[in-house]
Amino acid sequence: MKTIKNYLCVLFFLLPIAASAQDLAPVVQSVNSAKDVSGLIQVRSQLERFVEAQPLQWLADYYLAYVDVQLSFMVPSKDEKSLYLGEAETCLNKLSGLEVPDKSEIYTLKGFRLYALIASDPKTNGPKYSGEIMSAYSTALGINPNNPRAVILSGLFKNDMAKYMHQPYEDFQKDVDKAAALFAAENTTLLTPTWGKSWVDFALTKK
Amino acid sequence: MKKKQLLILLSFAVLMNGFAQLRTLEGKVLNEKSKPMVHANVFIKGTIEGATSDSLGHFSFTTRQKGEIILCVRMLGYAEYLIQVPDNKSTALVLKMRPDNIALDNVVVTAGNFRLKGNGKFGKMSAVDIVTTAGSTGDLYHSLRTLPGAQMVGESGKLFIRGGDSNESQTYIDEMHVLSPYTTTGDNVPVRGRYSPFMFEGINFSTGASSSEYAQGLSSILALNTKDVSPITKIGVNASSVGMSGGGTRAFEKGSVSVNLDYQNMKPYYSLFPGRLDWINPYQLFSGSSQIRFNPNQSTVFKTFIGYDKTTFVQQLTSLDNQATRDFGMKDDNFYLNSTFQKMTESGYKIFTGAAFSYKNQHIENAVIPADTYHDKEWEVHLKAKATKRYTDFLRLNAGIEDFIRHDETTYSNSSAVHSDSINHSIGAFFATAVLNISPDLYAELSERMEYTSINNLWNSNPRLALSYNLKGVHFSAIVGKYTQLPENKYLLLDQNLLAGQCLQYVGGMYYEKKDKVYRIETYYKKYTDLALQEPATLNSEGYGYSKGVDVFFNDRALFKNFEYMLAYSFNLSKRKYQDYTELSTPQFASTHNATVSIKYNLQSLKSILGITNRFASGRPYHDPTKEGIMNSTTGFYNSVDMSLTYLASKRVIIYASATNLLGRQNVYNYNYTADANSPGGYRKVPVIDSSNRFFYIGIFITLSGKTAYDVSNF
User: pTM of the entire structure?
Assistant: First the structure.
């Protein structure tokens, strides 16, 4: 009897965790495969429900912030961009208080969000956020120098800044090659960020 | 055996799951105008079960949950919608959403109000925008003079808004009053703002009918919000034709500390460009400022700002009457401390408390005549507390109390006498505002401000009503409000029973913004009463007057790529009988027409921003004693073409250069007359003109730390 009780207790504790990770897995896969605004919004809705149902599941907040940033690039309306980026900031602030395996991913996503802010209004936000972006990526790489997302996004931003100043960024190729190698070697699981390879492909078109 | 038991348990769970019946939840999501909402997220609260509404607002999904459930609907920009759905009512649901509090609270009554930066959807300019406006010479107040409503009073440098005197414009930092926002300068040298525009995140300039929260400003309110916690550590230095500065910010996990030191000395500049003034000791300014920002959590903000500056100069002045010269020697100490606390509670209250201390100590040698001295010591303590809460989608309330405790003492002495005066008084106030969201397109603000002025033991009631209506993207606003302001200290020192001047204001306007184009037009009428009036035998509060006009503003950032232009025009008719005016007259500072054309071009290939501003103002009235009446003559018109160039040498080096009045026109602001039997008419006429026809500025801003770019601010 005691043994059955032990099994029941173990099941009650383990099943929800295993179930939540499994439930989130197809949603995460959809994030990477969504091609248009409608598809991303569907995924966003699913992530929003996960955040509501499992508030301690950091990956849901993380990917909700990521999808919001992606949507801000794709919607035409400035008001909508502002709403998505505002929610992304809320998610990122919440992540600061959660247990996250790799803080480098949070700082990378912070920098990515700031990059989207600049893209939404370069004239106003460029001078305002350029410093913060560089700081976010530097911090991410300081925590984990082999974070492929931080490597490629940092490289792309430095290249853009150099172009604006009509100067070459000598290490751009090095950054792209390093990021490509890191993505190829990356061991992705259900519980880690998996996005970003498409930015390497984008960077290759800039060469 | 153990494995068998586990298998039985798992099989039991699967079987139980299979036996639960499916239930369909289906319906429509509509907005506040009963139109279908696309992509609204509909789900059972606390679960991942749900669906997204389609292009017709329709949603449908199945669940195994039985009994009453709570359905939740979410959409960015809209308030969360919750509905209890009983077991027997799961289909044909109609879920109606309303815009959320943030969207509601961002709609403001726009008449007479420019949100230049940060706060709300109308924010378009940054500190860099302000500084790169040609003619601003890097000064916030000079930049504001390009906006409609501001009148060109070049010899002063202060804000004169819609026919109002400069003392009718007040400055607030983080909602706390600043007693002395302007620098101290010599005779006929325009003042500048004490604080760098780069310190501020939000710049909110009200040219009239301002919120009941702000006190003692009959004409305008400049409300500045400092930046939030800086996430990056940085150090910067600056060298320019007028001085140098340096400072930085140290970022911590939950806060930041910023420090800036500034030294200005006009001697090198005057040696290259002498001007019309004679300096024994050149203008020198030393200032230091610091700010601590601390966010212990997401809902709490604590800020403290400290600023000190010391100004000294000795200027040789010539008396108009007898041509004797004197060395006007100034020593000015100014200190400002501002500490605020803000918190958003879990029950939705936004609490604010603040305390500010302003101190000015000014000593002048040879102030009026040779060998006299004038000493003025003035301070103010401002205490404020308020709370804001949105109770329903329909109603938001804001209420607070504040107190201004003021002291001013002056001493004048010469070879024959010593005269001292002082006043101590306070202004206590209670204010409350109700914001009513009558419909999605119609908003109303009802507010009341009750003030008690201890100096004359009187209460004043200042009600205000504001309406805002949105008609297909065009915002219409109308405001009526009553405002009061005590007379200047120079009058209160003579008679503490003077009444507070009153101004009843009516403002109506229209605002439209589309695709980087902004259109504004406003009309106003201001009626002044109880102004301080210096008559031959008495000083009383029987002064009165009016000011009315139209302001037009147009800004276009879409005509050509990297090109922006702004047109501002003000028409003003004002008359008043106050101070030493013997009859109702147009004030000397008021000009009927003021116009500004300002362009900016981003020369990307040259990594530069070019700015050109052309300002025009019609002639100002002045008093000619050889004619009857007062303010019986008019100066020539004012015109100045200014240029600025900002060069982004690298991401850490910015060079800024500006020149005012490129065409070298000698603008006359006024005439002073002195009795001279040898001159025609018995008077010698001396024009009041700029200290030099042109002013040149060049500065280099260098960021020393590695993690920031294009950042000229050390805060």
Answer: 0.84
Spans in chain A with pLDDT lower than 50: 7, 9-19
Residues B435 and B412: beta-carbon distance below 8 Å: no
A158 shares a domain with A109:
yes
pLDDT under 50: residue ranges of chain B: 1, 18-19, 107-110, 116-124
User: What CATH number does residue A181 fall under?
Assistant: 1.25.40
What does the DSSP assignment read for B514-533?
A: ETTEEEEEEEEEEEEEEEEE
Task: State whether A131 and B707 contact (CB < 8 Å).
Answer: yes
A98, A128, A150 - which closes a domain: A98
SS3 B564: strand
Instruction: Establish if B49 touches chain A: CB-CB under 8 angstroms.
Output: yes
Find residue B339's DSSP bridge partners: B304, B355
What's residue B711's pLDDT? 60
- What is the structure's pLDDT at B10? 56
Amino acid letter, B611: G
CA distance B706 to chain A (A): 9
The pairing of beta strand B653-660 with beta strand B638-650: antiparallel
CATH superfamily of B106-703: TonB-dependent receptor, beta-barrel domain (2.40.170.20)
Contacts of B48 in chain A (CB under 8 A): 23, 46, 49-50, 53
Contacts of A64 (CB under 8 A, 6+ apart): A44, A47, A48, A50, A51, A87, A88, A91
- State how far the alpha carbon of B297 is from the alpha carbons of A58, B36, B352, in Å: 19, 38, 16
The predicted complex's ipTM stands at 0.85
Residues β-bridged to residue B616: B595, B639
